[in-house]
Every structure is written in structure tokens, then in C-alpha cells.
Design brief:
Blueprint lengths: L1 E5 L3 H5 L3 E4 L13 E5 H8 L8 E4 L6 E9 L14 E5 L22 H15 L10 H8 L1 H21 L1
Parallel strand pairs: 1-6, 3-5
Antiparallel strand pairs: 2-5, 3-6, 4-5
């Protein structure tokens, strides 16, 4: 199982559909009971045909073990490549997991009506103001998709080239 710590409205931002249940809210904070949203793959894997909303799952080890109520199920999504198999993912609210944040794997997902260049420059400026040492890579979803299918495009071009060569030899 993979874990992803997200803020409220994350699913709306990245275009993931909540299949059943509710999204995280600002009330899902450090002083409220633990909640989790799981994806379809995790729901099928651990709950089969049973609706997981309302069930409690436990996470953590030893003294850190704690229960989280499943408040929603979201559709599966791709993270690295379009061809990757669906992963079982549990999404936890940022405001309940502040102690777990940190390290090198922090991502910001941004949806904006403004142009990419303006948004990218604004993001760079804001992050640099917080900490100039933070490494940043800013890319669009279109860029990620294009990078994800490079291997398939190269294979297609090579196959087409070989097919044309075979056709030329046959004539």
C-alpha cells in the first residue's frame, strides 16, 4: 500500500473523482479523529465487494499504530507512467499528518486558469522566499504524459521504418 499526504481539495485539483463518501475538510485536523480516503484498487484489494466507507483501518507500528476511518473512495490514477498498473493508495489529510511531512518527496499540484509561464514564475518566487535551497522542478501534466509515452513513440517510429524498408525491398 502506498500513502499520500494531501490537502483538502487535492482530488478536485488533480481531477480525481470521489466515487463515494466525502472529501477532506479543514475540520479533519490534528484534534479530530483520524480519517483516510482510499482508492478503488485498495478498496477492492482489502474490502472486496463491501463498501469500505465507515470502516476503520489501522496503520503504523507499535506505539504509533492508530485507527483511521475510511471517509471516501476515489478513482484510481496514474502517477509515473500511463502504462503502470494501478496502485493501492491511502490518502491522508495533511492537517492530521503534519509530523510526517518533510523530507525530499514533497509535491505541489497546482491548477490555474493563468498561463504556465506566469504560474511557474510565481511558484518559483514563493518557494525561494520560503527556502532558496529547496530543489524544484515545475512541469505540466501534458509534459508528464508526453514523457510517459516516449518509449512507445520510439517503438512505433522504428516499427514504421522497418515496415517501410520491408515494403521497399519487396517491390
Amino acid at each position: 500500500v502506498h500513502f499520500n499526504i494531501v490537502s483538502d481539495e487535492y482530488f478536485k485539483t488533480v481531477g480525481m473523482r470521489i466515487v463515494r463518501g466525502r472529501d477532506f475538510t479543514r475540520q479533519d485536523n490534528a484534534s479530530s479523529p483520524g480519517v483516510v480516503i482510499i482508492n478503488d484498487s485498495l478498496a477492492r484489494r482489502f474490502f472486496g465487494g463491501v463498501d469500505p466507507v465507515g470502516h476503520v483501518i489501522t496503520m503504523g507500528r507499535n506505539q504509533a499504530r492508530r485507527g483511521f476511518e475510511v471517509i471516501a473512495v476515489v478513482s484510481d490514477a496514474k502517477y509515473q507512467r500511463l502504462q503502470e498498473p494501478n496502485r493501492s493508495i491511502a490518502y491522508l489529510p495533511r492537517d492530521q499528518m503534519a509530523a510526517s511531512l518533510g523530507g525530499r518527496n514533497l509535491f505541489a499540484e497546482v491548477r490555474s486558469a493563468a498561463g504556465f509561464a506566469a504560474v511557474a514564475e510565481s511558484l518559483r518566487r514563493e518557494v525561494r522566499a520560503l527556502d532558496a535551497r529547496v530543489p524544484m522542478r515545475i512541469e505540466t501534466v501534458s509534459d508528464r504524459i508526453r514523457q510517459s509515452v516516449v518509449r512507445e513513440r520510439v517503438t512505433t517510429v522504428l516499427a514504421a521504418g522497418l515496415g517501410l524498408a520491408a515494403l521497399a525491398l519487396a517491390c
